[in-house]
Amino acid sequence: MTPLPAIAxxxxxxxxxxxxxxxxxxxxxxxxxxxADDAKALQAFGELALRHRDSYDRLRPYLNPQQDASxxxxxxxxxxxxxxxxxxxLGLSQYLQGLGQLARQDRFAYTSEINAAGVTLRAWPxxxxxxRAVAAYTILLRxxxxxxxxxxxxxxxxxxxxxxxxxxxxxxxxxNSLLRLYDKAGDNERDIxxxxxxxxxxxxxxxxxxxxxxxxxxxxxxxxxxxxxYGLRHTLAQRQLAALAQEHARLAALGExx
Amino acid sequence: xxxxxxxxxxxxxxxxxxxxxxxxxxxxxxxAVLRAIRKRASLGAAGINQAQxxxxxxxxxxxxxxxxxxxxxxxxxxxxGLDTAQGQLxxxxxxxxxxxxxxxxxxxxxxxxxxxLNLGRAVLARSPERILATLDTVRDRLRExxxx
Lengths: 258, 148
Known about the structure:
The structure holds two protein chains of two kinds. By secondary structure, chain A is mainly α. Chain A has one domain (24-253). Chain A has nine helices and no strands. Chain B is mostly helical. Chain B has helices at 12-43, 50-72, 86-102, 106-124, 128-147. In chain B, helix 1 packs antiparallel against helix 2 (50-72). The longest helix of chain B has 32 residues, at 12-43. Chain B is elongated and about 50 Å long. Chains A and B meet through helix 5 and helix 8 of A and helix 1 and helix 2 of B.
């Protein structure tokens, strides 16, 4: 079966939904729904943050004992910080989801994870996740509390987005600073892995090492591809986050949303 | 205050810049080793051997790990009131990088790269005295390399 009937049904439901409210209501809500869908920018960020956290697992086979010891220290640091980064990302996702629910006139309940852990977010100065970001996160949590349990409150949207815009801008810029650092650290990880392969393959040139060299070149090619792909993902995620922040600012500036 | 005359390593951004300089020095080392490996065919026994290549590569990895440690906690490695300007520090590190790229001697690369590593260690240890001492050593080594 083609997916067409499902799409037709969906369009029909949009049309019928539109009939229930005034014609002017539809575009703004649709735009908020589209913004809520931009949570995929946060998903992309989340994947890159996880990849950064797990850098040691990928590096380990390529390190000598001394290098391994240094990397373990960094690994502990990355893991400790990631807990706060993940909370920040969850808070932002919940906020966008909340806006979407309100636009759909649905009830919104934020996860208990946020409720319990929200106050314990730690600042990591110099990384983007600094005191300003922690303060903005507190504002975001207050907005989540305002959304909590609300239904049929589409009129709240304009005010919420207006009140939340400064915090959202701060938090998205924090995520972008983090991405910049992840990208730089990722480049160094790439150059350690590819550098070792490159240097050792060059010396694996005796007949006895032929099979080894062939296998190493296969690993090398797949690593080159992997790192190139993640380089592109970084660029894409940064663009998506910037677009999300811009669209939020635009909608927030419209004032009263229907 | 202009960027060039600001005390070095006085902000997280400047510490991050040191991380960038160390990463770039590592890249220069890698380029130099690959260049030497390519020349090996024509040089024969006089060319770089695997142990030398691995020794230089180990320095490269150490520089990259130091850079990543600085990226991970730039604010934690701010040094206040360092008696050298950020501009001077950047210029010195640029010179080291160019010198590595411009020389074909493994011992020169190792001498310059260990100089940088000691600087990185002093910054990671947050010791202004050691930073100034290691900067002097790096300057001395640059002169030795130029004198050859």
